[in-house]
Amino acid sequence: MDILVTGGTVFASRYTAEYFASKGNNVYVLNRGNRPQSDNVIPIIADRHSLGSTLKGRSFDAVIDVTAYNDTDVSDLLDGLGSFGCYILISSSAVYPETQPRPFCETAEIGPNYIWGKYGTDKIAAERTLTDHVPDAYIIRPPYLCGPMNNLYREAFVFECAEKGRSFYIPRSGDMKLQFFHIGDMCRFIELLIDKKPCDHIFNVGYPEPVSIRKWAELCYAAAGAQPDFKYVNGDIPQRSYFPFYDYEYQLDVARMAAVMPDLTPLSESLHLSFEWYRSNRDKIVRKPLIDFIDRELAKEEL
Predict the structure, then answer these.
(1) With helix as H, strand as E and coil as C, how does the chain read?
(2) Residue 197 contacts by C-beta under 8 Å, 6 or more apart in sequence?
């Protein structure tokens, strides 16, 4: 197939491009050329907001839009495309209001989410613009993505703490639950959408069961060959100052996804693969000053 992937240089979009290229497809990546390109892909260096005739003469069997964050991102790409087959938009679980009953299902009302703010409402606008113009497009709503090429300071933060033999500071009892999805499984699911063309067009994706943040940290430490010494943080200290996730617990109903793709990569395996990538790509991590805050505000008694 001839496949267009937007982005193609960082985490989800880069993994997606490399995944489909590894399957023997002709993968074109649309980006501005500001970062190193993957091998075995065909770069199209352009801004999606000023495409002109760049894509008009091309035909794609599938468009995988990983980097659309608002309605203009979608409309400008659609205006610049020539002919295409399947269009798949990577949206977000942030489109569900935090006031909706859990687990969120695809038929639930979408709307503003207090935690995610503009990011969530912009994703809603992107979805609506796409469905207005391409009614048979597919929309994927993932929770937190994990796995190789994740340059965000999430599991990489825990890996650093594990490698340095640091205690791990965790909110309250550590029972808050998070839902993840392995990036490789997301690509496999996209492949199935292109191949099977299911009747449903909106899919929540993710592991069926969420995991406690304590268990997640234990799995990250295990991937690095260590065991965590937990320090539990109570009180009014902002969670994001010392921990990489918001104080927000939710769950997606992924029954639709499971009907199409029931077998998933275990979370432990995903984190091991993430650690193997991290060990050779430490310079690509977008770090935040979590450890500095911990040492300054939480670990004074240990210094």
Answers:
(1) CEEEEECCCCHHHHHHHHHHHHCCCEEEEEECCCCCCCCCCEEEECCCCCCCCCCCCCEEEEEEECCCCCHHHHHHHHHHCCEEEEEEEECCHHHCCCCCCCCECCCCCCCCCCCCCHHHHHHHHHHHHHHHHCCCCEEEECCEEECCCCCECCHHHHHHHHHCCCCEEEECCCCCEECEEEHHHHHHHHHHHHHHCCCCCEEECCCCCCEEHHHHHHHHHHHCCCCCCEEEECCCCCHHHCCCCCCCCCCECCHHHHHHCCCCCCHHHHHHHHHHHHHHCHHHCECCCHHHHHHHHHCHHHC
(2) 86
Q: Is the pTM of this model over 0.90?
A: yes
pLDDT per residue as tens digits for the range 261-272: 999 999 999 999
**Looking at residue 303, what is its pLDDT?**
40
Strand partners, 177: 212
Q: What is the pLDDT of residue 136?
A: 97
Single out the residue of 204, 183, 203 nearest to residue 18, CA to CA: 183
CA-based R_g, the chain, Å: 20
Query: How far is it, in rounded angstroms, from Cα 112 to Cα 95?
Result: 7
| Centroid of chain to Cα 150 | 8
The span from the CA of 254 to the CA of 259, in Å, is 9
Query: d(Cα 101, Cα 214) in Å, to the nearest integer?
Result: 24
Q: What digits encode the pLDDT tens for the residues 158-208? A: 999 999 999 999 999 999 999 999 999 999 999 999 999 999 999 999 999
Q: Could you tell me which of 61, 50, 69 has the C-alpha nearest to residue 4? A: 61
For 21, 139, 229, the CA distances from 148, given in Å and listed in that order, are 16, 23, 25
Cα 220 to Cα 33: distance, rounded to the nearest angstrom: 33
